[in-house]
Amino acid sequence: MKRFADLQVLAGPAVLVVVAALLGTTVSVSTQGYFTDALVKVAIVVALYVFVGNSGVLSFGHISFVAVGAWTAGVLSVPASEKPAIMPNLAHFLRDRTTGNLSSLALAALVGGVCALIVALPLMRLSGLAAGIATFAVLEITHNLLRYEEKIGPGLNTFSSVPETTGLRQAALGALFVVVVAFAYSRSRFGRLLRATREDDAAARAVGASVYRQRLIAFTISGALCGLAGGLYVHLLPLNTETVYLDLTFITLAMLVVGGATSLWGAVVGALAVSAIDSGLAVAENGTSFLGWHIDLPAGTRVIVVGALMATVLILRPSGLTGGREVKLWPR
Amino acid sequence: MQLERRPGESLRASAISRSFDGVQALHGVDLEVRRGEVVGLIGPNGAGKSTLVNVLSGFDHPDSGTVTLGDQEITRWTPHRRGRHGLARTFQHTRGFRSLSVRENVEVSALGVGAGPRVAAARATDLLQRLGLSRYADAPASALAHGDERRLGVARALAMEPRFVLLDEPAAGLPEAEVPAFAELVRSVRDDHGAGVLLIDHNMALIMEISDRIHVLDRGRTLAQGAPAEIRGNLDVAAAYLGETAVAEE
Asked: Could you tell me if B35 and B6 are in contact, meaning their C-beta atoms sit under 8 angstroms apart?
């Protein structure tokens, strides 16, 4: 019976991802891009949920691991023959190697996880505001490293010639994989102990839980999933360092907060709901017709609206649209 | 993880001193709890009882003195390390995992000390039944009434299969009618689990009834220790804590 209840927690988010992917197959190719982008965002937000949702510690630094994953998959999957032209200063060991789609994604996850572990070793001793600010520092360091270090990527230039393998199917499968890993983690001993530390760290320590160790494990898994999502992202769009920086940090945190940070269901609902609004506004910023009306919103409207939505949800429903609870598809 | 059973071992505080901003909360206190006994820790407000429990459980460190668990000195150990070595505690002000279910609260405690998921689930089922909390198993812990929250705190501690349990005012807020059942529960911790229990409570009837020994603190110093009958007749204790009227009524 308990296993059935547990599976319901997985079924809701998984069904939502599949429905979004199926809807994506019914629209034009140009609109399909929005669905694919939304599914990659699901992967990023669920990866973020693994740490933020289960620990209750806010992180502004997770997009670093998305960026590192994107750089890993991007650099490794650009054809070797094109690397000298696109990335002339690339380190030798990267210049001569090219990997396939799946192995580039696996390596993106591995590098994301290793970077997260290295960052977490000192940072997970911090709590509250200090932890949040320190993760922001990580974002800044990573951004500047990737921006100016041309031995590991295109530097200021945009990644080009990365095979565009992230279509609707790869994005959906990637998002589903991240959802399943997040679910398995949250049901594991580690996930349950971390949630206990989120509720009351003194009571958790009293029952044998090491707050530091549990946060370290979650941060590393979360970083690996962010790395994977970064790999999916670079195979979807030509990225540069600005694509994986402040705007993405803001929008993914908004998605998590709007959906409900403490549940897997909330992470998926938030990612898809805010993606829908964000994409609709992006179209409107470029000028579009809707029911006979011509809509042409000023540039920047989408960020303002998403920001206002995030603030409104925090005021009216601090635990998010889902109340931070998991969904039960078949209530008893 | 099956904890090693070693009858006769003890949890010992030796010459513990602790001050806060110049106020001496504990002053050279010695206290010993042996496996299979209940030691009552009493004293007026501000006597240093909770400070001593915090020092024993690792939530505070003494300025001087040592804490030993069995034959290991654990003075500088973290609380979670002490927990994994069989030292459990409850809190004076109810603390728990409020958005987790009642069952999850107990399971997490077992998982924290290394039990597998199945063992944790079995312990939770057993403890919730014994503590009369089965009907709330799937409810969030935040929905429990105060007395039930207290019982859940004890269930969390017992799920760790501890060698020693520090119960910080576990009966506070319990309806009077439920105190005898609670006393029976504490006895079973001692008799069935073989654990040593340090019990702090303001319910003197409870303390006198179930303690094998009583340790009295007053202004950070040990005022008296001995069997309940000795403490009941101790005039210093009466003066400092129980009140002259209590002695007169005897």
From this structure: yes
